[in-house]
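On clarity, I found the account of how folds are encoded harder to follow than it need be. For illustration, here is how one protein appears when written out as sequence plus structure tokens.
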Amino acid sequence: MAVHESPELIDLFTTYTAGPDSIGAHLREAATRAADSDPLLVVTGADMALYPGDGRPPTVLGFRLSTRGFKELAAVSHLGPALASLASLREQDPGVDDDGDGSGTAVWRADAERLLSEVRRSRAANSPRLWRDVIAAPAYAGRERAIAAMVDHSCAMTERFLLRSLDEPSYLNHRTLRECYLEDGDDPERPVSFNRVMVATFFLVGMDTAHRLISWCDSQAIDWSRTMVVIAGQQGRPTAGVTWRTSSVAAIVLAASRGELPLDRLYMAPHAPVFRTPVDGDLGEVAALEPVMRALWSGTRATVELGASMFDGYPAFSPGDRDAPGGSLVRHGAGATLTEMPAIRSPDDWFTLVSRLRLVMEDPRQLLSGAVSDYAAQQLVAHANDPLAITVPGLDGEPYPEPPYCQGQFEDEQRATTGAES
């Protein structure tokens, strides 16, 4: 014990908390026993485990590491931040050669040349067949040709921007990037802006994750009114996903419940222990964590419920309204701000969609992929979880130039398939 501590008061402190025989520990144990038969859903950064209750074995769904196409789509969506980073690098260290024209061997130039090389390699590897037969994400079925065209267009416009920047370094600045790459314009070589591409790629990833999680939850016949939900551990970057409004997976779980999961039964626990992704079907570590997570949820719940009995008549805490945007969007005027994620009114509500991109970039609580994941999940639920029945903003209906290798490819393959079957 530290010399500046009072042993008597420390004993009083531990009588209620900080010990296995404390009053608080006894309350947690009692609450855990009372909820032993309730379903428990634990979601980590990579997996979802359902503990049915009464000692029955858990079932697990891996949803992050098995995501088909996530890295490939992220590679495309990252082209915007990559060019913005190059512009910042050039501002900080332009590099000056003997002619003084800013075309020296600065870091930005080497990085730009490397990015250009990778963009060209990726464009050559991209095709509808890649998305249909190799990546083969079920949620993308029927859109492979459109996705390939989007990727080709993204690589082409990025290549043009990089070539001009390398030839004319003053072109590489944030204003030019916005006006000639990110934002909508009337350039015939850029019929679709990159802001729309970023929304489309984030939406596709969110749609795929939501499609698989919703299908899995539906197959488990979960009684959402009794389910205890814990979103545990780190979700994406260290500062992201620590509230239910900023966690894309929490939004998907809420959508999967079709409104039946009470919001106050979902707890975000970024510092909770997590199980590792099971290997070869071994659920030993998952099962071992069940009593820990049940105690975590039940103990938190028990303490929350003390508030109503101790402070009856005072305003109660509310986790919020899942259907409300949680903030207001001010469209015009100096100092316009977003306090929380604004509601999307339709797939062509581009002011809000792009405002969400800025929000997830600047708000350290957010996941980048959470920009439209909640909207993707809501649209899937509203359309019987059918990915083809919903609109992917930034992809569906956009005038992407079709690469030459796409023309007639699907028709030839269809004729070949039909001939083989006959």
The CA atoms of residues 175 and 403 lie 29 Å apart. Residues 70-206+325-421 form one domain. Residues 327-334 have pLDDT under 50 and may be disordered. The beta strands are 40-43, 47-51, 59-62, 228-232, 266-269.
